[in-house]
Write a structure and sequence with these properties.
This protein is an all-alpha fold and 174 residues long. The chain is built from nine helices and no strands. The protein is globular and about 50 Å long.
Length: 174
């Protein structure tokens, strides 16, 4: 991670410091933190950032949690587009038509269900799907997760997404 931090340009110092800080929030367990970081990095699509996050997460997550975090990014990448279209179209009939999309990993990821919901919420926030954000946030609240915990995961997603944009821009000009 240190090499990643050193690659941040001076104009993005706030993002670098924020990234260091959000990965140490006390509202989240280590598994929640690093699973959120993995899912968010994958959703943000920056190879440099994703590589660094995956390498560090491999030392902090068990294989099943790492698998589940990746699975959350994968399935929400699909679902966010589908459900965001339904919402944005304004056509209520789309909501009555079965999705016919395989989403078995949502129930068979093998990791902590609350953690998986946090990761899905973070990815949905990155992808801008209000329907999915609301749905997963509602599940989390129903399971007793506090707003502080949910917002801590979203904080990670927002910083990682911002960092990905900066690192991609720098890679494009170098």
């Amino acid at each position: 991670m240190e090499a990643l931090y050193q690659s941040f340009p001076d104009y993005s110092r706030d993002l670098k410091l924020n990234l260091q800080n959000v990965l140490k929030q006390t509202e989240l367990t280590e598994q929640q933190t690093w699973g959120t970081a993995v899912a968010s990095a994958i959703a943000s699509r920056c190879p440099q950032l994703t590589s660094a996050i995956l390498a560090e997460a491999a030392t902090k997550l068990n294989p099943q949690a790492l698998y589940a975090a990746k699975a959350a990014a994968a399935v929400m990448g699909m679902n966010n587009i589908y459900y965001r279209f339904q919402h944005l179209s304004g056509n209520e009939k789309y909501g009555q038509i079965p999705a016919r999309l395989r989403m078995q990993v949502i129930r068979s990821h093998g990791s902590d269900p609350v953690d998986f919901e946090l990761w899905c919420t973070a990815v949905s926030a990155i992808n801008g799907c209000g329907t999915c954000v609301a749905s997963h946030e509602n599940v989390l609240r129903g399971k007793g997760v506090t707003e502080e915990t949910i917002l801590a995961a979203i904080r990670i997603a927002s910083v990682i997404h911002g960092a990905a944009a900066v690192l991609d821009a720098e890679a494009a000009i170098s």
